[in-house]
User: What shape does this take?
Amino acid sequence: MVVLAAALMLGGSVALAPTASAVGPSACQFNSPDVNFKVSTSGARFRTGPGKRHRAIGTLYRGDSFRYFCRTRGFEKSWSYGKILRRTTTGIRPGTRGWVYSKYLD
Assistant: This one.
């Protein structure tokens, strides 16, 4: 903070790194009417975007409820975008939107 203030006072500029943003439905290639699913495995990561490179919001466990809106491609090897319907086993709040690997949904 002190370095930033000193640089600005001396007429310098500071480049700030862009903030990471969540990837919403813009990554979808296949839309669907809203469908409710249950998570079919334990330990599925719920992420900010489709793929392991995106930050995990939390972990989903067997029986957690997920409303599906769309996915990246055909059901095999795809990522599904949607929202949490009820507080999950690990405490993710209802209405939280994110991505889960499609094969973990029933």
Remarks:
- The first helix runs from residue 2 to 9.
